[in-house]
Specification:
The chain is mainly beta. The protein is globular, with a radius of gyration of 28 Å. The two termini are 48 Å apart.
């Protein structure tokens, strides 16, 4: 495999040099970092001013550009939010040029010259890609004051929101399992805290975030709908620095600094914990006279360290650890129940610079996600009469090797391979029941191997064309099954005139893991399962076209895109099916999860509009999405197409941030979305069972005699799926930040209001009986339930 990579590299090198004049050429390479912290900067534009010749820094801040020999070569380095730097030097030999960029000082009474600070989307071959500066994320109003990366991404066109307050992401008609969420090369399988109301990503520890919705580069694979690529900060190499905050429900602290006096390395540690349990538990206990104890908390910890062993060898180690836990204990019923879930990731990376044109990175990756449900019922003398534990999870061990090769300004070549060993535990049931004198311990592990090899080239044949073409070959090996599938990718941009281009892309994606969910709101009880001999891999093909326009004098970028995506072999539960076989766990081994699911297809198409401004006293964006999504399963809805829950016809987001002065920042968000497609009851009726009926319950063989008449009310959901449209969703959030610069630290007070005009957005609907009055007969009506009215919040943040 390693030999194959270098063979491909040789072919690319020969191809990139073919037809070029034999003129002397030299290479300028190096690292671009932030002044004051030595933090590597990702995506910095390095170019010859006045030309389209240039490149960008990679994930580790490295760049390389090869130019003809000349007496005076002038290179510019520009990045959003930083002052542009230019370097002039003679180019008569290969040169190493490391550059420090100073954060831009924007509050000078007028806007900075935005044209020099904003990258030009019209000059990039990549489309359907969005990045939001973390500094901007921290200024946007947030629920309960907790800044959240995923909730900001929900404000982007093409990204449909989940239920009220949820962090679920549904991109261009895809489900939550079709998003590849990566933190420092490690996959995060469940990115939710507090049942989905917050994400696991602490903004203090995040350096960059990029969302790719289509036109996927060949280096990404394994999901159908999107890639969310997050990179943690490396840590401050210059001095000890810290920041944190105290909010209504959680507090956080981040520390970073140099590892050694020679400033060759740095570290970062960031932690966050909620204190809902500390606040709520005494209230619950007081209200129940000490008979009930209950609580919930979450925590997360990010850690990273890096060290430069030499100018050509650098080592990085990073990890994330987080957990949620809910618990309840009832002294009257003598029961204990609990629910917990969490992620752990670890990445060890080694950078090696073979030459000024050839950069490599090798990664060892670990990821572990698991959850557990437990229930204990005790009899006399605290003897356990009933014990239920339900466990599920997925554990990964991965190896990844990537090469960046820069043969000329016309070509930027990437290639690599990745292999991941998955261990799935979709069902681990432990049951003890003293009544039936039975103990069951069912554990079913599934081991599979998923691999891929890729090569891609960003090619600039002339001043008008930009192309990114690549091929990924994916491989999957499970029990009695193996797949080898090619995945071609192509993105093309053609410049119509300066600052205006038309773009098109095509991508074929395969997905070998699936998420089983019948909740629709991303609870941790949703189960990850692999492709098997009975369930095929999911596959999608997506085509997109659009235009990109830069308004350099105003610091604005405009993108308009249309897309069509077809999806095959997507899976869903059959009607009435559930994988939680709690009523009869003795059957957990004999009933395969594949028996409960059905495979089908889906398609999504629409148009997206984004006007974005990243710098200046006033920044933000306006986004609009018009889309249609439909699914079709042979065993659902009578085989007819239907709209899935998160199909939305219209979606609007308006985000504004205004730096009133150095001490005050104002921000506001307004969102609107067509209501979700739901299946709600259309009627209700009662069923009766006669006296003295024998029924089974409580476990196999346990018989109960009922001597009273049984009446059961049943809701009738009709024969059609998701024919009801919820009311539109909209809300208005505002916040104001007060900054104060002290001698040794900076403090910020923030006051925010979520849902300022108190919109009662629908969370769920339910049929209920309405009693008769003097003027109205008794009836059954459909009631709407909401979760959040206006929610004020105050938080205190600090830096030192």
């Amino acid at each position: 495999m390693h030999l194959g990579l270098f063979s491909l590299l040789f072919l690319f090198s020969w191809y990139s040099g073919w037809g070029q004049a034999p003129t002397a050429r030299f290479t300028v390479s190096g690292y671009v970092r932030e002044a004051g912290s030595q933090e590597a900067l990702i995506g910095v534009n390095v170019y010859l001013p006045g030309t389209t010749t240039g490149t960008t820094t990679n994930t580790y801040g490295f760049y390389s550009i090869t130019l003809p020999a000349q007496d005076s070569a002038r290179l510019a380095y520009s990045f959003v939010g930083y002052e542009t730097v230019e370097r002039t030097q003679a180019l008569r030999s290969n040169r190493t040029q490391n550059v420090l960029l100073m954060p831009g000082r924007q509050l000078t009474g007028v806007d900075v010259k935005a044209g020099s600070l904003v990258e030009k989307v019209s000059e990039s071959a990549q489309m359907s890609s969005i990045d939001v500066p973390v500094s901007q994320i921290k200024k946007i109003p947030a629920f309960l004051g907790e800044k959240d990366v995923l909730k900001v991404l929900q404000l982007m066109p093409g990204v449909q929101k989940g239920s009220e307050g949820q962090t679920g992401i549904y991109v261009r008609g895809g489900g939550p399992d079709q998003n590849l969420i990566i933190l420092d090369d490690a996959v995060v399988y469940n990115a939710n805290h507090l049942f989905g109301f917050f994400s696991v990503f602490n903004g203090d520890a995040i350096k960059s975030v990029e969302l790719i919705k289509g036109g996927f580069p060949a280096r990404y694979g394994g999901r159908l709908s999107s890639v969310i690529d997050l990179n943690m900060k490396d840590g401050n190499r210059e001095k000890l620095h810290g920041e944190g905050g105290i909010g209504l429900i959680a507090s956080r602290l981040m520390l970073e600094g140099p590892l050694t006096k020679n400033k060759k390395g740095s570290f970062l540690v960031s932690g966050r914990r909620t204190y809902l349990d500390v606040v709520a538990a005494p209230i619950i206990e007081a209200q129940t006279n000490g008979q009930t104890k209950a609580g919930y908390y979450f925590y997360d910890l990010n850690a990273k360290a890096n060290y430069d062993f030499s100018p050509t060898d650098k080592l990085y180690i990073s990890g994330y650890f987080g957990r949620d836990r809910f618990y309840a204990s009832d002294k009257v019923q003598n029961t204990d129940t609990g629910l917990s879930w969490g992620n752990a990731t670890g990445t060890l990376r080694w950078n090696h610079l073979f030459s000024q044109k050839l950069f490599s990175n090798a990664s060892l990756i670990f990821s572990d996600y698991k959850f557990q449900i437990s229930a204990v019922e005790r009899g006399t003398n605290d003897a356990e009469t009933y014990l239920l534990q339900y466990n599920s999870g997925i554990r990964d061990f991965g190896l990844k090797y990537d090469i960046d090769y820069y043969p000329s300004p016309q070509h930027s070549i990437r290639m690599g391979l990745q292999s991941t060993y998955h261990r799935f535990t979709p069902s681990a049931v432990v049951l003890q029941n003293a009544v039936i004198n039975q103990s069951i311990d069912n554990v079913s592990n599934i081991d599979v191997l998923e691999s891929g090899i890729y090569a891609e080239d960003t090619w600039r044949p002339n001043n008008r064309w930009r192309l990114n073409g690549g091929l990924r070959l994916s491989y999957f090996k499970g029990e009695n099954i193996a797949y080898v599938r090619p995945e071609p990718r192509l993105s093309v941009a053609y410049t119509l005139k300066p600052d205006l281009s038309v773009k098109a892309s095509y991508a074929l994606m395969n997905q070998y893991v699936h998420l089983l969910s019948n909740t629709g709101i991303g609870l941790p009880t949703d189960l990850w399962v692999p492709t098997t001999d009975r369930v095929k891999p999911q596959q999608s093909q997506q085509v997109a076209v659009g235009i990109a326009k830069d308004f350099t004098d105003k610091g604005l970028t405009l993108t308009v895109e249309g897309y069509y995506k077809g999806m095959n072999n997507i899976i869903n539960y059959k009607e009435g099916a559930s994988f939680l076989l709690i009523n009869d766990p003795t059957q957990a081994n004999s009933v395969r999860w594949e028996d409960n699911v059905t495979a089908g297809r889906g398609w999504s198409y629409g148009a997206e509009f984004l006007l974005q401004k990243k710098v200046g006293r006033f920044s933000g964006w306006a986004g609009y999405t018009l889309s249609w999504t439909q699914w079709q399963f042979a065993e659902l809805n009578g085989g007819k197409p239907f709209y899935p829950r998160y199909d939305r016809r219209h979606d609007v987001s308006l985000v504004g941030i205004y730096e009133l002065n150095k001490r005050i920042t104002l921000s506001a968000v307004w969102v609107y979305g067509t209501g979700n497609a739901l299946t709600v009851p259309v009627g209700r009726y009662d069923t009766y069972r006669p006296f003295n009926t024998l029924v089974y319950g409580g476990g196999p063989g346990l018989v109960q005699n009922l001597f009273t008449q049984n009446v059961r009310t049943v809701d009738d959901y009709g024969t059609q799926k998701n024919t009801f449209r919820a009311e539109p969703y909209h809300r208005f959030d505002v916040s104001i930040q007060f900054h104060k610069q002290k001698k040794h630290h900076e403090r910020t007070w923030e006051i925010s209001f979520y849902n300022l005009y108190n919109r009662r957005n629908p969370f769920f609907y339910r049929l209920e009986s309405v009693t008769a009055t003097a003027t109205e007969p008794a009836r059954t009506a459909l009631f709407r339930y909401s979760v959040f009215p206006i929610v004020p919040a105050v938080s205190y943040n600090f830096k030192f």
